[in-house]
Amino acid sequence: MQLLKERILKDGVVKPGNVLKVDSFLNHQMDIDLINEIGKEFRRRFPSEKITKILTIEASGIGIACIAAQYFHVPVVFAKKAQSINIDGEVYHSKVESFTHKRTYDVILSKKFLGPEDHVLIIDDFLANGCALMGLISIVKDAGATIEGAGIVIEKGFQQGGDQIRKLGVHLESLAIISSMTDTSLTFKE
């Protein structure tokens, strides 16, 4: 997605340790016009009418998933990174290691929001080592639901996450794939 790549080059900040900060437009402050175009692009890449739910993980994926959902006309459900008193009943859970936070979360999703009848599109902002996406795939499988695909805004193609997901046979669409990144620059896969 050329518009996204241009924005990453213009406003993204490469930090040491293979960290790309896009917080000025994607995951802290959100450029809604850009995210609206991202939502349209996900709909174009996932034309299936079978999709009944969009699944993401808190927090950065929620806004993107919500805007994309308006083009699918389906609800968004998100896995939470902490148990709270307003989550009642049975839950699905999976362990997820965060690349940027360097910690492991036990993510949970109430069983009342995902079941065997669902056809799920997973959406998230980043794919690096694949842990978050693998955790969400595990939850979908535990629910007996069908994975229709995974839409990622930015994939770090030089890390193993994308390859792992594709080897599972999941239809993975990344809008911008970074092929290499140094402490001062990045290049995209064409």
Automatic annotation (TrEMBL):
It catalyses: XMP + diphosphate = xanthine + 5-phospho-alpha-D-ribose 1-diphosphate. Its EC number is 2.4.2.22. Pathway: Purine metabolism; XMP biosynthesis via salvage pathway; XMP from xanthine: step 1/1. Keywords: Cytoplasm, Glycosyltransferase, Purine salvage, Transferase. The keyword Glycosyltransferase applies. InterPro entries: PRTase-like, PRTase_dom, Pur/Pyrimidine_PRTase, Xanthine_PRibTrfase. Its main location: cytoplasm. 5-phospho-alpha-D-ribose 1-diphosphate binds at residues 128-132. Xanthine binds at residues 20, 27, 156. It holds the Pfam family Pribosyltran. One of its GO terms (molecular function) is xanthine phosphoribosyltransferase activity. It is found in: Cytoplasm. One of its GO terms (cellular component) is cytoplasm. It is an enzyme of class 2 (transferase). Residues 23-157 form the Phosphoribosyltransferase domain. GO terms for biological process: purine ribonucleoside salvage; xanthine metabolic process; XMP salvage. Converts the preformed base xanthine, a product of nucleic acid breakdown, to xanthosine 5'-monophosphate (XMP), so it can be reused for RNA or DNA synthesis. Belongs to the purine/pyrimidine phosphoribosyltransferase family. Xpt subfamily. Homodimer. HAMAP family: XPRTase (MF_01184). This is Xanthine phosphoribosyltransferase. It comes from Sellimonas intestinalis.
